[in-house]
Specification:
The complex is a heterodimer of chains A (313) and B (289). Chain A has 313 residues and is mainly α. Chain A contains 13 helices and no strands. The termini of chain A are close together. Chain B contains 14 helices and no strands. In chain B, helix 5 packs parallel to helix 13. Classes of the chains: A mainly alpha (313), B mainly alpha (289).
Chain lengths: 313, 289
């Protein structure tokens, strides 16, 4: 186990290295002068020279890359071109709304989607199975922002049950935070629920056909015990995998959802940085989100041996 | 499952076709055909010029002349939604062709040559780790927004998924006796790849292509919606929704009509994809059905 653990952690390094190379090249291989790109259209020649100087653009590409990597490894993600704040401070300022919404979304998705998938598999080919599958296809097909606006229209504008937009920190006003978090979390969860419910159902259907499930039933165990004790445990691995790969959808969804609900999180920071052409921030955000994605999938990989003792490394 | 799909009972009555294919894929095909026809014949179908601004007709409710009403510049919403189908479909089809062709080529090489495999798969892992929407936004904002950069920006994150699929098929197929036989008979490597390995990928790739297409259309809409897509002067479903955001309380239809068109388009492609999977790939179909 420790050896595997180490190997798996080490395997994440080349992935992140590829991401870093790509993010680095993205800016350097852009047609035109990177300094001009960085400075924007309104830059004076002095500003251009200053940026060229600070970037060391006269050095060979590999020197630039290793210097940049060195800075990254010491926690220096560069400075925002707009606010002149270190990027890492900007990210730290803006990350909490995103973290809260993401945590609520994941919890909500698992709580809703796993039972949906279980019931659909258990009552295979019944109306409830068709309902779950219909919901799942719809969840995949209706874009996050369309769902967002539908929910705003229904629950905030027509029924007046919840605030339309905005964000309040939970430490300031918890009920206010909760009221404003419901719709964004539901919006983000729609596709995640669809994904997890579908995989839970498919995985459980596979397992329910196994001999040991028939044995468990033949022994006279209750249906709930067969389902939860024997079947679901063995169906868990593909479900965990899809939670990990679905994390990429969650990240993309956050950008859109925060924009729809006017939440000052990392997603909004991304969109704002694009409009401001604030490239150090965009670079840092791609690196950060990729890092989180790799980390989440690493943790999920490592969880397999706990979920299924047959998997040993 | 396999024999069910192999059976070719001709001639089929209309009812038999419905029973055999199911209502959902047929409806999906109908909706998608309508969207494609609307896009191709947009200049003839659309009742008004989609970019003509009529200041005295701003934000008007639906009428006989303007079936879905007008937007904040007095442009006809229905005409804009019809024209919007063009960009979505061009991007969807373009990205699908690019991603499948490039992914197939890279995947064949990766699955067959061990040395190349290690390097290629690390690069693909890295690409997959980057959130596709973020990556596409970054590429478009750096390269400048045009239909070509948007297409390239959406294609790049889609390639790894195709590569992985093709590679896994090649890895299992190359152990087959007929491939070994071909190699030992001295068949040239390009011919082995082309004649013996590539045909194995067609059925799964067809299914994958539908998902790539749906995902590309969705990503294009997200880019437009966030203001990082093709120029705002071009009516796209995402652009129409982006402009309508500040008028949402006043006129939510400005978001819901293009949203409905977009959702129906993606839904139809996904349903056709699910149907293709059940028919072409019984092994995958069994898991879900």
């Amino acid at each position: 186990m420790p050896v595997y653990f180490l190997r798996r952690v080490l395997a994440a390094i080349p992935v992140m290295l590829v991401v870093a190379v790509f993010v680095f090249l993205l800016l350097r291989l852009t047609p035109g002068d990177p300094a001009a790109v960085l400075a924007g259209d309104m830059a004076t020649p002095e500003q251009l020279e200053k940026i060229r100087d600070s970037l060391g653009l006269n050095d060979p590409l590999y020197v630039q890359f290793f210097r940049w990597m060195g800075e990254l490894l010491t926690g220096d993600f560069g400075t925002s071109l707009i606010s002149n704040q270190p990027v890492i401070d900007l990210v730290a300022d803006r990350m909490w709304p995103t973290i809260w919404i993401a945590l609520i979304t994941i919890t909500l998705s698992v709580i809703v989607a796993v039972p949906m998938g279980v019931v659909a598999a258990w009552k295979h080919r019944s109306w409830i199975d068709h309902l779950v599958m219909t919901f799942s296809v719809l969840g995949f097909s209706i874009p996050v922002f369309v769902i967002g606006y539908l929910l705003i229209k229904l629950f905030a504008l027509d029924l007046g049950l919840l605030p339309v937009q905005g964000y309040v920190a939970p430490s300031e006003d918890f009920p206010g935070f909760a009221a404003r978090a419901v719709l964004p979390a539901l919006t983000l969860a729609s596709i995640y629920i669809a994904l997890i419910a579908r995989m839970t159902r498919a995985s459980l259907l596979d397992v329910l056909g196994e001999d040991y499930v028939r044995t468990a039933r033949a022994k006279g165990l209750t249906e709930t015990r067969v389902l939860f004790r024997h079947a679901l445990r063995n169906a868990a691995v593909p479900v965990m995998t899809v939670i990990g790969t679905g994390f990429a959808l969650l990240i993309s969804g956050v950008v859109v959802t925060e924009s729809v609900y006017n939440i000052p999180g990392l997603g909004r920071l991304t969109v704002d940085s694009i409009f401001a052409r604030d490239y150090p921030v965009i670079q840092a955000l791609i690196l950060l989100t990729s890092g989180i994605y790799v980390l989440v999938n690493l943790l999920i990989d490592l969880s397999y041996s706990f979920l299924d003792p047959r998997i040993r490394y | 499952m396999a024999e069910k799909t192999m059976r070719g009972a001709f001639p089929l009555s209309t009812r038999a076709i419905f029973a055999k294919i199911g209502i959902a894929p047929l409806l999906a095909a109908l909706v998608l055909t309508l969207i494609i026809l609307a896009a191709v014949f947009a200049p003839f179908v659309a009742p008004h010029d989609p970019i003509y601004q009529n200041p005295i007709m701003r934000l008007k409710p639906p009428s006989a002349d303007y079936l879905l009403g007008t937007d904040n510049y007095g442009r006809d919403l229905l005409s804009r939604v019809i024209w919007g189908a063009r960009v979505s479909l061009v991007i969807g089809i373009g990205v699908t062709i690019l991603a499948v062709v490039l992914g197939l080529a890279i995947g064949l090489v990766s699955g067959f040559f061990r040395v190349a495999d290690a390097i290629i798969m690390r690069i693909m892992d890295g690409l997959m780790a980057m959130p596709s929407v973020l990556l596409a936004i970054a590429i478009v904002s750096l390269m400048g927004a045009s239909i070509w950069t948007v297409m390239a920006a959406i294609t790049i994150p889609e390639i790894p998924r195709v590569v992985r699929l093709v590679r896994s098929i090649v890895l299992s197929a190359r152990e087959e006796p007929y491939v070994e036989a071909a190699i030992s008979m001295g068949t040239s490597l390009p011919r082995v790849l082309w004649r013996h390995l590539m045909p194995n990928t067609f059925a799964p790739l067809t299914v994958q292509a539908t998902y790539v297409c749906a995902s590309a259309i969705l990503t294009e809409a997200i880019l437009s919606f966030l203001g990082a897509g093709v120029s705002t002067e071009t009516p796209t479903w995402g652009n129409i929704m982006a402009e309508a955001r500040i008028y949402f309380r006043l006129k939510p239809e400005l978001i819901f009509w293009p949203g409905l068109a977009l959702s129906m388009c993606i839904l139809s492609i996904n349903l056709l994809g699910d149907w293709a999977r059940d028919v072409l790939d019984p092994r995958m179909g069994k898991r879900e059905a």
